[in-house]
Amino acid sequence: MKFKALKTTVATALLAFLVGCSTSPTGRNQFILVPGAEMALMGASAFSELKSNEKISTDAKTNRYVQCVTDAILKVTPPQPDFEKWEVVVFDSPQVNAFALPGGKIGVYTGLLKVARTQDQLASVIGHEIGHVMANHGNERVSSSKAANGALQITSIALGASGTANSDLIMQGLGLGVNVGVLLPFSRAHESESDLIGVQLMNEAGFDPNQSVQLWKNMAKASEGAPPEILSTHPSHDTRIDDLQDAINALPATNRKAPNCGRPNV
């Protein structure tokens, strides 16, 4: 009986090792346990719940503006293997925040537009959030939590088990609190990586990557000593700007010109 249990443990550990070997877009080694298609389903389910519980903006100009900036970024975003279409929803909320979930689900809060004052600054945020999806950060969080809890049966993860430990774990992995609408921060390593991916995307799309630095200066001013939600675990202000500036200086020139998306009054 003990030998059988040992075999099961070894087999599970081997499966975790084989599935867990992955590399992010920046070349960082990753621990990935959950199939990408399953993460996409989780993201779609969580996004559906968000739309049911959060107020969605009905302002046509604001929606066109956010969609226009996002579309420009998506034109240069590599195809993702586990879903085909991205979806963007603007939430009518004073939160200074945005997010992107596995499965290509993007949420932007209207409060962000008061701090991201130009379309280039909004492009910086959108590119950053898309970077989280491209780099499988949600999957890393779910995988790490599952491994820490000793639950490595990757095929058993299902968001449909509402109210269970698995459900809460998945929501947290996607960056959502148990109370839907509460966004949880990613690690500093994930945030720094998404910064780098974001400036690459916005540059290739024809936006001014230098505006990513100005955006975080705006964020610091708006925070009045307490960082807004989107900055909660980001690197320190000086570190972020230094890292972003180094990344910007290394960017190749591009002939692409971003569209004029017509910023709304907010």
TrEMBL record:
Gene Ontology cellular component terms for the protein in this record: membrane
Peptidase M48 domain boundaries: 61-246
Cofactor info, note text: Binds 1 zinc ion per subunit.
The keyword Protease belongs to this UniProt entry's keyword annotation: yes
TM region(s), chain numbering: none
GO terms, biological process: proteolysis involved in protein catabolic process
Origin: domain of life: Bacteria
Cited Gene3D superfamilies: Metalloproteases ('zincins'), catalytic domain (3.30.2010.10)
Family: Belongs to the peptidase M48 family.
Protein name: Peptidase family M48
Species of provenance: Enterovibrio norvegicus DSM 15893
